C-alpha cells in the first residue's frame, strides 16, 4: 500500500511559506524573478488542491499518478535547494554586515535570510537552474491536467476513510495471553476498598501503548472479569477513536447504563442531565477505548455528568498518547510488547485453533521466525497467523516470513492501518521529522540530541516566539515519544528506539528519498532520488562501499551511524575516498563522520555551500582546513573527543550562522580563535580557553548572551584583570545549566590568590545553573554566592584541587543539591558549621564524597553549640577516601544510606558512638582501624561487603556479623594480619545467605577457619576464590559439603600442598588452580565413597564421580610440584568435563593415565608450556565432541602424531620440535577450519593426501625443515581465508624464503595474507586474490616491489581494490616506496583505508 507521498502536503506548505517571505520577495524583485516566483506559487497552490485526489488514485494502483507524485516530490526538494542557492549567493556577494541575534529563518534552514539590501547579479549557472526548474514545474502542471485530478472540496482523504478501524466492543478476545500481572494491577485499582459517598474527582486509569500492543484486549479482560461485574452497579464501554465527540460519547454511555431511554435527537444538555441522574450515587465503570483527544476542555465537558457517581467509580482510558493520560490527570500504565513465548501461543491459536504446535512440529521453526518478526506486537501476530489460518504448506509460511508488512494482502492486513493512524494523526510539522527516522536500521538506538540537531539542519524545526529551535525540536521529540512512536531506551537515558513495525512505517512513508544502508546494501535503482542516507561503517571503508552514494547527487544528509561495539572500534577511511565522495555531494546539509581514523579533512569540504551540520567527533584531526570558514551556512560544528585537535580555524568568526560549537574533551586544544565573541548567535560553546592579552580574553563571553547547555572555562589563571570576569556577565546567561571553571594544576609557581578570588566572585552564574564544577582554584576563600540559598537549582557540585582554600562554603543551604564531591582540598582542616550554614542542611543530598584531603582532621556535626540532629536526611551514598589525618567520626544518623565507602583513613576514630546503618546495601571498608568497622551496626540490609587493608584485623567475629543476615558477597583483600576468616560457628550461621567469597592478598592467612576441628563454610556458597595468600597451608576439610558451590578458584598460594582428602563438592562446574607451586596433587571430585567402610577402589570411586559430578571446566597453570602423572591414584576426570587446560606445570610428564573413553563430553583440550610432558592421553581420536586441540610441549616426542577425532575444528601444534610427523589423513577431517603449525623443526611435510580443502585458516611458521613444495599443499585449499607463512616454512629446493622472487598459488577465497622473514626476497610475483582484505609483510629486508597485475603490468597494480589494510614492517626499501606523497607507490595505495608502515601503531594510517 503506497503512502510514500503522504507528507507532500506538509512539504508544499513549507514552500508556500518561504515563497511568500518578504525577504525572498524583495530579493526576487531586485533580480527580476519576482513574477516567476509568483507563477510558481500559483502552480504549487493548484497542485496542493489536487493532492488528496492523487493520493486516493494511487491507492487504486494508478501508476501514472504514483509516478507524477514521485516527480513532484523530487522537484519540491530541488526547488528548496535552488532557494538555498539564492540565499548563499546573496551572502557571498554582499559586503560585511552587522550581525543580529534575532534574524529569523524565513526559508529553508538558513535560507533566504540575512539578504543584502543591494541586488546581486545571478550568474549564468543559476539562471540555467531556474529555467530548468520552471520547465519541470510546467511539465508537472501539464501532467496534472492530463491526469484529470480533482480539486479537494474539504473531503477527507481516502487514506483516512479506508484506514478507519472498526469500532471496538467490550467482548473479550478468544485468546488472551501473558498480561496477568498488568490485569491484576488494574483490578487492584478498580476493586480496592473505597469509602461510601460521592466524590468530586473520579479515578482515571490510563492504559498507554503503541498501536496494536493489546490495550483494548486488556481493557476487555478487565471489563468482563466477574469481580469487576460484582463490584460496579453500572458499566459502559465507548469506542471513542480520533474524533472526541462529547455528545456521541455521552449518548453511548447513557445507552449502556440505561437502555430504556430513547436518546435519538436529544441535545447535549438533555443527555448530560439524564446521565447525571442515571449515575447519581451509583458506583460505575466506564471504558473509553482508543482516545486521541488532547483538548482539556473537551475532557472536562465529558466528565461533568460523571461526577455524580458514588465513591469508587472508575474510568479506564486506552490511548497511544501519554499526553492524553496527563490530561486525564492520572499516572499511566504503560503496556510493553509481549514476550516471545506468549506470542507463540497467540500465533498458534489464530493459525491452528489450538495454543501450541504439537500437531504441526514441522512448522514450529518457521512460526517462531514469523513471530520474532512481529517484535512482541499482538496485532501483528494475530494478523499474520490469520493469513495462515489452516494453511500447512511450508512454502506459504516462508512467503509470509519473507514479505514486508506493507506487501501483505491489503484486504487482510490490519497491521498497517492501525500503525498508519498514528502517522495520519501527526501534526504536519512532525510528519517529516518522523519520516526522517527512516534512515535508521531496525533495533538501532538513536541519540536524541543528535537527531534534533539533524532535524534543525534539515529545516524541519522552526523556532517559535520566545523559544529557540533546539527547544522546539525537543518538544517535537517528546511529542513523538508521547504518541508511542519512539520508545525510550532502558539502558541509555538520552537514546531511544523505534519498534520494527514503526520503523517499517517510517520507511514506507519516506519512500525512495531515504536510504538505510543496513537494509539496502548494494544496488539501489532509485539512488538518484535519495535525499537522506545513513551508513553503517565497517572497520575499513572501501570505495566500493560508498559507490552507491556517488549516485545520490541530491543528497542532503550523510550520516555515519555508531557501531554497537562502541567508541574504541573506530573506522578507517582514506582521505582520497572521502574527498571523492564529498566532491559528488554538493547539496549536503548534514555530514556526520564520527568515530573515524581521519587525520586530515579534505579541502573540498569548502564546496559544501549548503552544509549546516558537520560532525567530526572522535577523529584524529589536528586542524581543520582554513577553507572551513567559507561554510557560510554552517550552524553546528561538533569536534567532541578530538584528542589531537590543536587549533581551530583563524577565521572561525566568519561563520556568522554558527549556533553550536562542541569542543568537549579536546585536551590538546590550547587556544581559541580571535574574536570568537563576534559569533553572537552561538547557543552552545562547550569550552572557552582564556589566553593572555593578545589572545581570547574572558570578556569575549559578554556578547554570547544566548549560550545554553554546558560551558567549560579553562586556563582562568591567565586572566590579568578581574574586570574581564565581570564583563563576561555569566549571571545573565540563564540558559547555562552545566558550568566548569578550571585554573592550572600548577601550584608550585606564583599564584595571585587575591586576583583569583575576585575572578571567581565575578563569575557568579545565573540562578538556573544545575551543575557546577570548580577545579584548581587558587584563592584562600570561596565567594559567598557559592553557598547562597538563592541558587535553588544546583543539583551537582564538585570542588576539585582547590589546594589553598582554607574553609568550605555554606553548601548545606543549597536546597536542591543532590551530589557533592569535595576532592583535593589540601588546606582544609575541619568540616562542620561553615559547610552546613544552617541547622537543617542538605535536605536533598543523595551522594557525598570527600577524597584526597591530606590535612582534614575533624568532622564536626554541630551547628553552634547544638549537635545537628539529622545532617543528611536523604543521603544514600557516602565516600571518604585518602584522608590520612581524619580523626572525627561519621554522622550518627545515616538511616537512608545504601552505599558506604571508607578507604585510607588510618586515624579515623570510632569512639564513643555506634553508627546504625539499617538501609545499607554495599560497604567498602579499607585502610582504617578495626574499631571503626565494629562501630557500624544494624546492617541487616547489607548484601555486599569488601574489607581491605585493615591492619589489626585477625578474623571476623560474631559481634560484627550478627546483623549480616542478608550478606551475599564478601571480599577480603590485603589484610596483612588476618589469620583466619572466622573462628566461631555463630559466624557461619550469621552468613547463611553468603553466595560469593573472595580472599585476596592476605599474607597472614593460614586457614579459612581457626581451631583444630574445622568449622564449616557458609552452606549457600556458589563462588569461592582464594588468591595471593602466601602462607595458606590448607583448605577446610568440610568443603565437600558445599552443595551449591559452582565456581572454585585457588591462585598464587605457594604453600598449599594438597586439597582436603574429602575432595571438592560434586556441584562444582568450574575449577581453576594457578601458581600453587607446592601443590602435589589435584583434588578428588566429589569426595570419598558414600560407603567409607567399603574399599575405595578406583572403579567404585570413578563410578561415584561420574554419577554425581557437574564439573565442566578444569584449568591448571603454574603448579610445578604436581606429580609426573597427576591423574593417577584415583584422580579421575568426570564424564561431564567439557574443557581441560593445563599449562606451565614442569613436573607433569604424562597424561596417558587419562581414560578418554569416558570423556565423551570433552570439547576443548589445551596443553601449553609443560616442558617435561612426554605423553598424551591415548585414543584422542575417539573423543566425538572434541573440537579444539592446542598443544605446546617441547619434550613431547612422537614419530607421528596420533589420529585426530573427526569433529575437530581447530588444531594448533606449536613449540613441539620433537614431533616428526603430523597426524595422518588430515584430508578426512571435514570439520577442520583452523590449522597452525609453528616451531616444529622436525616436521618435513604435510601428510599424504594433503590438507582438507575446506580449511579456512592456516598458519605455518618457523618450521625450518619443511621440504614439501608449497604448491603441493596450498593449491587444493579452495576455501582458505587466512594464510600466515614465513620464509623458513616454504619448502622445495632449499626454501623459497632464500630466493629473490616469491611465487605462491593463492586461492581466490583468501581474505588475509601475512608474509614474514624472507631475507632475500625482492619481488612478489604473486597474483593476489580479488577479495583480499589484509596484506601484511614483515622482515623482508630486500623487498622492493609490490605485486603486478594479472597481465604482469605495473608493480603495485596487482593490489586488489578490496584491500583494506596494508601493513609493511621491517622492509626498509618497500617502506620508502610507500611514503606518503613521495613514494612511487603512493598513488596506488592512497585509497586504501589503512596503510601502516614501520613502527606505526596499528591504529595509525598514512592514508587517513
From TrEMBL:
Boundaries of every Disease resistance N-terminal domain copy: 7-100
Top-level taxon: Eukaryota
Pfam families for the chain: LRR_R13L1-DRL21, NB-ARC, Rx_N, WHD_DRP
InterPro entries assigned: Apaf_helical, LRR_dom_sf, LRR_R13L1-DRL21, NB-ARC, P-loop_NTPase, Rx_N, WH-like_DNA-bd_sf, WHD_DRP
Domain NB-ARC: 201-350
Residues in Disease resistance protein winged helix domain copies: 439-506
Stretches of the chain forming a coiled coil according to its record: none
Residues annotated as domain R13L1/DRL21-like LRR repeat region: 698-824
Keywords annotated in UniProt: ATP-binding, Leucine-rich repeat, Nucleotide-binding, Plant defense, Repeat
The name this protein goes by in its record: Disease resistance RPP13-like protein 1
Amino acid at each position: 500500500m503506497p503512502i510514500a507521498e503522504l507528507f507532500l502536503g506538509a512539504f508544499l506548505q513549507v514552500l508556500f511559506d518561504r515563497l511568500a517571505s518578504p525577504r525572498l520577495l524583495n530579493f526576487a524583485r531586485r533580480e527580476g524573478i519576482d513574477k516567476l516566483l509568483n507563477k510558481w506559487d500559483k502552480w504549487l497552490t493548484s497542485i496542493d488542491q489536487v493532492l488528496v485526489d492523487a493520493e486516493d488514485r494511487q491507492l487504486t494502483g494508478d501508476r501514472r499518478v504514483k509516478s507524477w507524485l514521485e516527480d513532484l516530490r523530487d522537484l519540491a526538494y530541488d526547488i528548496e535547494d535552488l532557494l538555498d542557492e539564492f540565499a548563499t549567493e546573496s551572502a557571498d556577494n554582499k559586503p560585511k554586515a552587522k550581525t543580529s541575534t534575532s534574524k529569523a529563518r524565513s526559508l529553508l534552514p538558513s535560507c533566504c535570510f540575512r539578504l543584502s539590501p543591494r541586488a546581486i547579479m545571478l550568474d549564468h549557472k543559476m539562471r540555467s537552474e531556474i529555467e530548468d526548474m520552471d520547465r519541470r514545474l510546467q511539465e508537472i502542471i501539464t501532467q496534472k491536467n492530463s491526469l484529470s485530478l480533482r480539486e479537494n472540496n474539504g473531503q477527507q482523504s481516502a487514506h483516512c476513510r479506508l484506514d478507519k478501524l472498526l469500532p471496538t466492543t467490550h467482548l473479550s478476545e478468544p485468546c488472551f495471553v501473558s498480561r496477568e500481572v498488568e490485569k491484576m494491577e488494574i483490578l487492584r485499582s478498580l476493586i480496592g476498598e473505597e469509602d461510601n459517598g460521592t466524590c468530586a474527582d473520579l479515578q482515571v486509569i490510563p492504559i498507554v501503548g503503541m498501536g496494536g500492543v493489546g490495550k483494548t484486549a486488556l481493557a476487555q479482560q478487565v471489563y468482563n472479569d466477574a469481580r469487576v461485574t460484582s463490584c460496579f452497579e453500572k458499566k459502559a464501554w465507548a469506542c471513542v477513536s480520533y474524533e472526541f465527540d462529547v455528545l456521541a460519547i455521552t449518548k453511548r454511555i447513557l445507552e449502556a447504563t440505561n437502555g430504556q431511554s430513547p436518546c435519538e435527537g436529544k441535545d447535549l444538555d438533555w443527555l448530560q442531565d439524564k446521565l447525571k441522574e442515571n449515575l447519581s450515587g451509583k458506583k460505575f465503570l466506564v471504558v473509553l477505548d482508543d482516545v486521541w483527544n488532547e483538548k482539556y476542555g473537551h475532557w472536562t465537558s465529558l466528565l461533568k455528568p460523571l461526577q455524580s457517581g458514588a465513591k469508587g467509580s472508575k474510568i479506564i482510558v486506552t490511548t497511544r498518547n501519554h499526553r492524553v493520560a496527563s490530561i486525564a490527570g492520572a499516572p499511566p500504565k504503560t503496556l510493553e510488547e509481549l514476550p516471545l513465548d506468549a506470542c507463540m501461543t497467540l500465533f498458534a491459536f489464530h493459525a491452528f485453533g489450538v495454543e501450541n504446535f504439537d500437531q504441526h512440529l514441522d512448522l514450529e521453526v518457521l512460526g517462531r521466525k514469523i513471530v520474532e518478526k512481529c517484535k512482541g506486537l499482538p496485532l501483528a501476530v494475530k494478523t499474520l497467523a490469520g493469513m495462515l489460518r489452516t494453511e500447512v504448506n511450508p512454502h506459504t509460511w516462508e512467503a509470509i516470513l519473507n514479505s514486508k508488512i506493507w506487501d501483505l494482502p491489503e484486504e487482510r492486513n490490519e497491521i498497517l492501518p492501525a500503525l498508519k493512524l498514528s502517522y495520519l494523526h501527526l501534526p504536519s510539522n512532525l510528519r517529516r521529522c518522523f519520516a526522517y527516522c527512516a534512515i535508521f536500521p531496525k533495533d538501532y538506538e538513536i541519540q536524541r540530541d543528535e537527531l534534533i540537531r539533524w532535524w534543525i539542519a534539515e529545516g524541519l524545526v522552526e523556532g517559535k516566539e520566545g523559544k529557540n529551535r533546539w527547544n522546539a525540536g525537543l518538544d517535537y521529540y517528546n511529542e513523538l515519544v508521547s504518541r508511542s512512536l519512539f520508545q525510550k531506551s532502558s539502558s541509555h537515558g538520552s537514546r531511544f528506539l523505534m519498534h520494527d513495525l514503526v520503523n517499517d512505517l517510517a520507511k514506507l512513508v519516506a519512500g525512495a528519498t531515504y536510504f538505510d544502508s543496513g537494509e539496502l546494501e548494494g544496488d539501489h535503482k532509485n539512488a538518484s532520488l535519495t535525499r537522506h542516507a545513513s551508513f553503517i561503517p565497517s572497520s575499513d571503508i572501501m570505495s566500493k562501499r560508498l559507490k552507491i552514494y556517488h549516485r545520490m547527487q541530491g543528497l542532503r544528509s550523510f550520516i555515519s551511524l555508531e557501531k554497537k561495539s562502541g567508541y574504541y572500534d573506530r573506522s578507517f577511511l582514506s582521505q582520497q575516498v572521502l574527498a571523492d565522495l564529498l566532491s559528488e555531494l554538493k547539496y549536503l546539509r548534514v555530514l556526520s563522520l564520527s568515530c573515524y581514523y581521519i587525520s586530515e579533512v579534505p579541502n573540498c569540504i569548502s564546496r559544501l555551500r549548503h552544509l549546516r551540520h558537520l560532525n567530526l567527533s572522535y577523529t584524529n584531526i589536528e586542524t581543520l582546513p582554513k577553507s572551513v570558514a567559507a561554510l557560510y551556512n554552517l550552524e553546528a560544528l561538533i569536534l567532541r573527543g578530538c584528542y589531537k585537535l590543536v587549533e581551530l580555524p583563524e577565521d572561525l568568526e566568519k561563520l556568522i550562522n554558527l549556533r553550536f560549537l562542541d569542543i568537549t574533551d579536546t585536551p590538546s586544544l590550547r587556544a581559541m580563535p580571535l574574536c570568537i565573541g563576534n559569533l553572537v548567535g552561538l547557543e552552545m560553546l562547550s569550552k572557552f580557553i582564556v589566553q593572555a592579552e593578545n589572545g581570547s580574553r574572558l570578556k569575549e563571553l559578554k556578547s554570547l548572551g544566548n549560550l545554553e547547555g554546558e560551558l567549560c572555562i579553562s586556563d582562568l589563571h591567565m586572566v590579568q584583570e578581574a574586570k574581564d570576569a565581570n564583563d563576561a556577565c555569566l549571571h545573565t546567561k540563564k540558559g547555562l545549566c552545566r558550568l566548569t571553571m578550571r585554573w592550572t594544576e600548577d601550584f608550585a609557581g606564583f599564584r595571585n590568590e587575591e586576583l583569583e578570588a575576585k575572578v571567581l566572585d565575578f563569575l557568579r552564574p545565573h540562578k538556573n545553573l544545575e551543575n557546577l564544577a570548580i577545579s584548581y582554584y587558587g584563592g584562600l576563600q570561596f565567594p559567598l554566592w557559592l553557598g547562597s540559598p538563592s541558587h535553588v537549582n544546583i543539583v551537582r557540585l564538585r570542588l576539585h584541587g582547590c589546594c589553598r582554600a582554607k574553609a568550605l562554603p555554606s553548601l548545606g543551604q543549597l536546597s536542591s543539591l543532590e551530589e557533592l564531591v569535595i576532592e583535593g582540598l589540601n588546606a582544609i582542616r575541619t568540616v562542620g558549621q561553615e559547610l552546613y550554614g544552617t541547622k537543617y542542611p542538605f535536605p536533598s543530598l543523595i551522594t557525598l564524597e570527600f577524597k584526597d584531603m591530606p590535612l582534614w582532621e575533624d568532622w564536626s556535626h554541630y551547628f553552634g553549640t547544638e549537635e545537628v540532629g539529622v545532617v543528611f536526611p536523604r543521603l544514600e551514598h557516602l565516600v571518604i577516601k585518602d584522608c590520612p589525618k581524619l580523626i572525627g567520626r561519621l554522622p550518627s544518623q545515616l538511616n537512608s544510606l545504601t552505599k558506604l565507602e571508607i578507604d585510607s583513613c588510618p586515624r579515623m576514630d570510632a569512639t564513643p558512638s555506634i553508627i546504625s546503618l539499617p538501609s545499607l546495601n554495599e560497604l567498602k571498608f579499607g585502610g582504617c582501624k578495626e574499631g571503626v568497622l565494629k562501630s557500624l551496626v544494624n546492617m541487616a540490609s547489607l548484601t555486599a561487603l569488601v574489607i581491605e587493608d585493615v591492619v589489626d584485623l585477625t578474623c571476623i567475629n560474631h559481634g560484627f556479623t550478627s546483623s549480616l543476615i542478608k550478606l551475599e558477597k564478601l571480599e577480603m583483600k590485603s589484610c596483612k594480619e588476618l589469620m583466619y576468616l572466622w573462628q566461631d560457628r555463630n559466624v557461619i550461621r550469621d552468613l547463611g545467605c553468603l553466595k560469593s567469597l573472595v580472599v585476596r592478598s592476605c599474607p597472614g592467612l593460614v586457614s579459612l577457619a581457626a581451631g583444630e576441628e574445622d568449622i564449616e563454610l557458609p552452606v549457600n556458597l556458589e563462588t569461592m576464590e582464594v588468591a595471593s595468600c602466601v602462607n595458606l597451608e590448607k583448605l577446610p576439610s568440610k568443603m565437600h559439603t558445599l552443595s551449591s558451590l559452582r565456581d572454585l578458584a585457588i591462585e598464587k598460594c605457594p604453600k598449599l600442598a594438597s586439597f582436603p582428602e574429602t575432595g571438592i563438592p560434586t556441584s562444582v562446574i568450574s575449577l581453576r588452580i594457578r601458581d600453587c607451586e607446592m601443590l602435589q596433587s589435584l583434588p578428588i571430585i566429589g569426595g570419598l565413597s558414600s560407603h567409607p567402610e567399603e574399599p575405595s577402589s578406583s572403579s567404585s570411586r570413578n563410578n561415584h564421580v561420574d554419577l554425581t559430578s557437574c564439573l565442566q571446566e578444569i584449568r591448571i597453570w603454574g603448579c610445578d610440584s604436581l606429580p609426573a602423572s597427576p591423574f593417577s591414584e584415583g584422580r579421575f576426570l568426570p564424564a561431564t568435563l567439557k574443557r581441560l587446560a593445563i599449562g606451565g606445570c614442569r613436573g607433569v610428564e604424562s597424561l596417558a593415565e587419562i581414560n578418554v573413553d569416558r570423556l565423551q563430553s570433552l570439547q576443548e583440550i589445551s596443553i601449553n608450556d609443560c616442558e617435561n610432558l612426554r605423553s598424551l592421553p591415548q585414543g584422542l581420536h575417539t573423543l566425538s565432541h572434541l573440537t579444539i586441540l592446542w598443544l605446546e610441549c617441547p619434550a613431547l616426542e612422537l614419530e607421528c602424531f596420533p589420529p585426530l577425532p573427526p569433529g575437530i575444528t581447530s588444531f594448533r601444534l606449536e613449540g613441539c620440535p620433537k614431533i616428526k610427523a603430523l597426524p595422518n589423513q588430515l584430508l578426512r577431517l571435514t570439520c577442520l577450519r583452523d590449522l597452525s603449525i609453528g616451531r616444529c623443526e622436525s616436521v618435513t611435510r604435510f601428510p599424504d593426501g594433503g590438507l582438507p580443502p575446506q580449511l579456512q585458516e592456516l598458519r605455518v611458521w618457523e618450521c625450518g625443515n619443511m621440504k614439501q613444495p608449497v604448491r603441493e599443499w596450498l593449491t587444493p585449499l579452495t576455501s582458505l581465508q587466512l594464510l600466515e607463512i614465513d620464509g623458513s616454512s616454504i619448502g622445495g629446493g632449499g626454501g623459497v624464503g632464500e630466493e629473490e622472487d616469491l611465487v605462491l598459488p593463492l586461492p581466490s577465497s583468501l581474505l588475509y595474507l601475512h608474509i614474514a622473514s624472507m631475507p632475500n626476497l625482492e619481488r612478489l610475483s604473486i597474483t593476489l586474490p580479488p577479495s583480499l582484505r589484509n596484506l601484511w609483510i614483515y622482515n623482508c629486508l630486500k623487498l622492493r616491489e609490490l605485486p603486478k597485475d594479472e597481465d604482469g603490468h605495473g608493480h603495485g597494480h596487482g593490489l586488489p581494490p578490496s584491500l583494506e589494510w596494508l601493513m609493511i614492517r621491517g622492509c626498509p626499501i618497500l617502506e620508502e616506496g610507500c611514503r606518503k606523497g613521495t613514494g612511487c607507490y603512493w598513488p596506488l595505495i592512497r585509497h586504501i583505508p589503512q596503510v601502516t608502515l614501520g613502527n606505526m601503531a596499528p591504529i595509525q594510517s598514512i592514508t587517513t
